[in-house]
Design brief:
About 30% of the residues lie in helices and about 30% in strands. The protein is an alpha+beta fold. Strands 1, 2, 3, 4, 5 and 11 form a six-stranded antiparallel sheet that branches. Strands 6, 7, 8, 9 and 10 form a five-stranded antiparallel sheet that branches. Helix 4 packs parallel to helix 6. It starts with a helix and ends with a helix.
Length: about 260
């Protein structure tokens, strides 16, 4: 009896392993979430330089959410240097940079950015085998290339700093990702990208606000203003009581944006 029970448990374990390995997308949502994080910035002349973290991921569902909520499945995780010109509201994706393999990046709150003689320095903290360390990325703005640096680096005191709160505003309401030099998150939806499916994503509140704004942005670009108006009619009908306020706020932002585009 004991032997038979062990065999049954082993078969069950094998089944679970195969299910996890081969079910793939079944363990994760098909509609992704989109996160945009920014570092502190530095103001040089009339331009603000800062770093951006662009993360697209699928939330776990079903058995993948156990035991502690589960882990997300990354679709895209990239870091960029940006230049933003507030007067003209122009974004420039200067360059993509990466961290060394195995480095677990801490939040942008633990990073600093400097410019010295047209060299952009980004200093960040990370964990390596539970030990907190610091890394550095340097980019030559004139030659448009990354350079190696040798410590120690002495930075001048820069008074024209820009807070994370301020740089975050630049990426708070992005409706057209290609205009700001980022990959279109709609491409990462794991289902049909037809108008009908995208409308369903909006009405059901799938993904997160950044993704839904990208969908609205596509409809705006295609001048499907009537379609957006139709979506807005019952935009909050599927929202729970706890989500109602945020969905109403989201709807208001979309209405204001639609009015600007359709004039």
């Amino acid at each position: 009896m004991v032997r038979q029970q062990v065999i049954r448990n082993l078969k069950y374990l094998i089944y679970i392993i195969f299910f996890i390995l081969f079910s793939g997308c079944a363990l994760f949502e098909k509609v992704p979430n989109v996160n945009l994080g920014t570092s502190r910035g530095v103001l040089v002349n009339s331009s603000i330089f800062f770093a951006v973290r662009y993360h697209i991921f699928y939330a776990p569902k079903g058995i993948a959410r156990f035991p502690d909520g589960g882990r997300v499945q990354d679709a895209l995780k990239k870091y960029y240097f940006y230049r933003y010109m507030p007067e003209d509201k122009v974004y420039e994706n200067i360059a993509e940079f990466s961290l060394s393999e195995g480095q677990r990046f801490l939040s942008f709150k633990h990073s600093r950015i400097y410019i010295k003689k047209n060299i952009l320095y980004f200093k960040y903290s990370y964990y390596d085998k539970l030990i907190k360390k610091e890394g550095m990325v340097a980019f030559d703005l004139n030659r448009k290339l990354f350079i190696k640096i040798l410590p120690p680096i002495i930075f001048p005191k820069q008074l024209r700093k820009v807070s994370i709160t301020e740089t975050a505003k630049y990426f708070k309401r992005i409706f057209n990702y290609s205009e700001v030099g980022l990959p279109d998150p709609i491409a990462y939806i794991r289902t049909s990208k037809s108008d009908r499916k995208l409308v369903n994503v909006l009405q059901m509140g799938d993904g997160n606000r950044n993704l839904r704004f990208a969908i609205i942005g596509r409809f705006l670009k295609e001048k499907k203003y009537d379609l957006i108006s139709k979506v807005l009619e019952d935009y909050t009908s599927s929202a729970s009581l706890s989500e109602k306020y945020f969905r109403e706020e989201e709807k208001k932002i979309i209405i204001e944006t639609l009015q600007r585009y359709s004039k």
